[in-house]
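Dear colleague,

Thank you for sharing your sequence with our group. We've completed the structure prediction you requested, and as agreed, I am returning the results in plain text so they can be pasted directly into your records. Please verify that the sequence below matches your submission; if there's any discrepancy, let me know and we will rerun it promptly.
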Amino acid sequence: MKPEEFYLLLKKREKKVKKYAAYGFPERAGNTVLDFIDGNFSAQGWQGNAFKRWKKNKRGGTILVKTGNLRGGSRLIRKRTGDRQK
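Please find the predicted structure tokens below.
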């Protein structure tokens, strides 16, 4: 492989890595976090280093899931390229 060909191949890979860093990785990380949050609701406790079951509520039902609004409130928001964080 000639140095010029290698340089072009490297530039193509650079574009792929930048695209993955900007879009692919954040989305995968966000989905992993959302799965963890949903798992905590399903297990009715914190699934961190040590599982701690939440106390039962007065109704005798599930914790934090009276209407489902809190559980359904966690979602991934995608940001468009060029948007600035403030």
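Summary note from our side: The CA atoms of residues 45 and 53 lie 4 Å apart.

Kind regards,
the structure core
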